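Review form for a predicted model. The reviewer records the input and the model, then writes brief findings.
Reviewer: anonymous (R2)
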Amino acid sequence: MRPFQHLTIVFSSVMTMLAIACVQYQLSVWWLVVTALVYVHLLVLGAIFIRWNFYVKSFDKGTNKQWVSLTFDDGPANYTLPILDVLAEKQVSATFFAIGKNVVAHPETVKRWEKEGHLIGNHSYGHGFNFDWQSTKEMTKEIESTNDAIASIIGKKPRLFRPPYGVTNPNLAKAINRTKMHSIAWNIRSFDTKSKDPQQLLDRILDRLSGGDIILLHDSMSITHEILTELIDRTQQNGFTFAPLDKMLSIHAYS
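Model under review:
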């Protein structure tokens, strides 16, 4: 069982005992209120922090201390092609977690990902702000529609899925299990979508390298393209090798 299930069982037991105590021993009902608030607070934290594996198991780090893996979210996007040029020049492979509607709009980029040896993952179809409020059925449809779009171009369906915004919940856990996807997190979040200073962004990533790292980047950001060459060079100078995500995690990238 996942931590969410354990917590819910404990919460139900505690609430039952508190309710009995309130009736039989005049215990203040505020104990029920406080316990419920703590439970809800933990549910929210479990949703936000994907690395807790609270609702669903997510891979966030490899075991080989010599390897590092680059991952890019939200493509195909504005800077996907320049980023691919850098990766080709440096002979480094990465994983691109694609948004389904962008895949449909830019099939040639998807073909290039495949041709140049990069892995393609699923990042939902629309990446909408309401994704986490959808039903399991709706989430499943987004995952399957994105897989179908990718498969129509490269002939195989991804099994790597990164939840939009890195948020999980019970509905998404069911959708991931139904579609037999691997949930992929990270252990180094670059915050390249918020960074304004290239040097600070670069230092933030490099200072956190420890081996087995999964680095979260976005191919929609100019600053990411700007630092990529130096990021690759300095990572390699520090003794690390860039490895494909499936090799690092010993899982299948496609079905």
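Findings: Residues 3-48 form one domain.
Further findings: The chain has two domains: 3-48, 58-249.
Recommendation: see findings above.
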